[in-house]
């Protein structure tokens, strides 16, 4: 099984693409969903976050849920608080992703999709060889973000500018997904990519045979020298 990375700019269509993969029965590891899960009450990062930032960032009248927007505002403007938040949440997110990956590994799928906005920033492209980048025009990105999140133009621009530019991501991509058209056009592109990725797949029996062969020829060499 191999991992296909999926990234893009804010609101360029990653979740829309993920859903298309999901609808075709392909497992998706969603980094944003993991990040939400680990800070839920009872989640692996919850108690530490509460101890670090204090009860005023949690809604105790509604089950103690994290007030994401309130915390987001302070960490956006304070680098040391942002580092503390990342130091607490990132290891928990990585652990959850590893568990999900191992589960998928033994489920017999040909490949899985790893959906994360910060694929390049997090250095995941060093270990993931196939990276899909979904893009649209800057005007569409701004318009879709404002429409979906009902935020101001200023807020939308500041969020878009806080990430690596889409042109740089496009340069680093293995496969580009053009989301400047309709969602139906995007769906057809993703289906074509799925056919391509499935045709690349080497059945696990062949891989196992290759590994066994390498093991068999390297074992006598290993014994001779050690
Ligand atoms: N081709 C399209 N035409 C019109 N609207 C679209 C198209 N593709 C996606 N959208 C809409 O744009 C918005 C952003 O899409 P989506 O949520 O998939 O982006 P995203 O990259 O996952 O966002 P984020 O970076 O916030 O995770 C959504 O409301 C979605 O329905």
Automatic annotation (TrEMBL):
One Gene Ontology molecular-function label: ATP binding
Keyword Cytoplasm: yes
Family annotation (InterPro entries): Depp_CoAkinase, P-loop_NTPase
GO biological process, one term: coenzyme A biosynthetic process
UniProt keyword annotations, A-Z: ATP-binding, Coenzyme A biosynthesis, Cytoplasm, Kinase, Membrane, Nucleotide-binding, Transferase, Transmembrane, Transmembrane helix
Sequence intervals crossing the membrane: 204-222
Highest taxon of the lineage: Eukaryota
Family as reported in the entry's similarity comment: Belongs to the CoaE family.
NCBIfam families: dephospho-CoA kinase
The protein's name: Dephospho-CoA kinase
């Amino acid at each position: 099984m191999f991992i296909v990375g999926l990234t893009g700019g804010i609101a360029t269509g990653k979740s829309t693409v993920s859903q298309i993969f999901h609808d075709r029965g392909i497992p998706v590891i969603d980094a944003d969903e993991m990040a939400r899960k680990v800070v839920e009450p009872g989640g692996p990062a919850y108690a530490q976050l509460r101890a670090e930032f204090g009860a005023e960032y949690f809604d105790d009248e509604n089950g103690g849920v994290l007030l994401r927007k309130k915390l987001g505002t302070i960490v956006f403007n304070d680098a040391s608080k942002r580092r503390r938040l990342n130091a607490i949440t990132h290891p928990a997110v990585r652990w959850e992703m590893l568990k999900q990956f191992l589960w998928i590994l033994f489920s017999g799928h040909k490949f899985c999709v790893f959906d994360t906005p910060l694929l390049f920033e997090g250095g995941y492209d060093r270990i993931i060889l196939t990276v899909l980048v979904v893009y649209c025009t800057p005007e569409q990105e701004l318009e879709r973000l404002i429409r979906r999140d009902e935020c101001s133009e200023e807020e939308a621009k500041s969020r878009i500018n806080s990430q690596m530019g889409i042109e740089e991501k496009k340069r680093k991509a293995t496969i580009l997904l053009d989301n400047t058209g309709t969602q139906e056009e995007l769906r057809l592109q993703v289906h074509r990519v799925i056919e391509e990725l499935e045709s690349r797949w080497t059945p696990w029996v062949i891989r196992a045979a290759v590994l066994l062969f390498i093991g068999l020829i390297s074992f006598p060499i290993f014994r001779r020298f050690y």
